Amino acid sequence: MSRNLFITGTGTEIGKTYVAALIVKTLHDAGMNVAYYKAAMSGNDRRPDGTLIPGDALFVKECAQISQSLDSMCPYVYEHAVSPHLASRLEGNPVRMTVVKVKFQELCRKYDYVVVEGSGGITCPVGYDEERIQLEDIVRNLHLPSVMVADAGLGTINGVVLTHAYMQQKGLPLKGIIFNNFHPGDVMEEDNRRMCEEMTGLSVLACIAKGDKVIHSLKAEGLAALFE
Fold it and tell me: Which domain holds residue 143?
């Protein structure tokens, strides 16, 4: 069975998929057998034949140059660019926890490492009408440790501290923080890093600048050590 890691974030559009792709790429480039998984993916385009393209999965696949099939990366793909619980209501395809677990376990049997990405922030509802599923339920059911992705800029202290407090209250283990869109030497961003560490007790594992193709401060062995 595989070792696994969940990528959560302080909200949507802060770079979870980008960071997940870099983690997958780093492990793959080091010769490790690694896969990507996301339970539900919304805001996707359609192919000419009308089928949906799982955009985040495609980005990870192309960035990391992995051979894993797109179909195995995400069991629930939606067109509407809204929370998965609403997209599933609009499109008539509700998320089922049993399906999420079965598809995840299939990857666990085939790969040594599985990177699991969340949708939005940790409180994002994935299902509601048919079966009430929060992201935290997926993390708990799949027994995943997490790392938190946060934007390095203004406002991040509040998002990081609140996300940490919520996950701590819910008993969801956090391995550390990864800052995205980081500008080395920027006074505010350097202070954000220090304050987030002091206020949460978590370590900032890496700071990623826009356009980085590698995670400079974390090599494959260090990343692999975060998985459980």
Answer: 3-224
Which is catalytic among the residues 16, 25, 38, 175?
A: 38
**36, 73 contact by CB (below 8 A):** yes
Give the CATH number for residue 41.
3.40.50.300
Structure pTM?
A: 0.97
Give 89's contacts (C-beta < 8 A, 6+ positions apart). Answer: 128, 129
Give SS3 for 24.
helix
38 has catalytic annotation: yes
**What are the b/e assignments for 100-128, b being 16+ CB within 10 Å?**
beebbeebbeebebbbbbbbbbbebbbbb
pLDDT digits (tens, 9 = 90+) for 148-176: 999 999 999 999 999 999 999 999 999 99
Distance, CA of 211 to CA of 27 (rounded, Å): 19
Task: State how many domains the chain has.
Answer: 1
